[in-house]
Specification:
This protein is of the alpha+beta class. The chain is built from three helices and four strands, in the order βαββααβ. 30% of the residues lie in helices and 27% in strands. This is EthD domain-containing protein.
């Protein structure tokens, strides 16, 4: 087994529960909103973002995973009232859903090799 220190410390999962009335425009999310997030949060240390569509059997429909180098960077990003205002004003343009947020610190990173 090979392990290495993670390249990031904090993972933020923004999770949309599967509901009958959920609407989420993935094209707008990926092509417009995520680049806005990257630009707004770059000064605070955002490292990347992925958007996942969950399998139909899941209780959740979409998961947005955002990675920051440090918890302090994430806290500064969400504390940036001007940028957060712009980002939050954009949300209704791609969804009518209300997500759950799960913020956590990475315990271990790297690749596990299976023999």
């Amino acid at each position: 087994m090979t392990s290495q220190s993670p390249a990031y410390e904090v993972v933020i999962n923004i999770i949309y529960k599967r509901t009958p009335d959920l609407k989420l425009n993935t094209e707008y999310l990926v092509k417009t909103h995520i680049p806005m997030v990257s630009k707004a949060w770059a000064p605070h240390g955002v490292l990347g973002c992925t958007v996942t569509q969950a399998t139909p059997a899941s209780d959740y429909a979409y998961i947005i995973n955002v990675r920051f180098k440090t918890l302090e960077g994430w806290q500064k990003a969400v504390g940036d009232a001007e940028q957060m205002g712009l980002l939050m004003a954009d949300v209704p343009k791609f969804t009518n859903g209300m997500p759950d947020f799960v913020v956590g610190t990475v315990l271990e990173g790297g690749i596990t090799e299976v023999s």
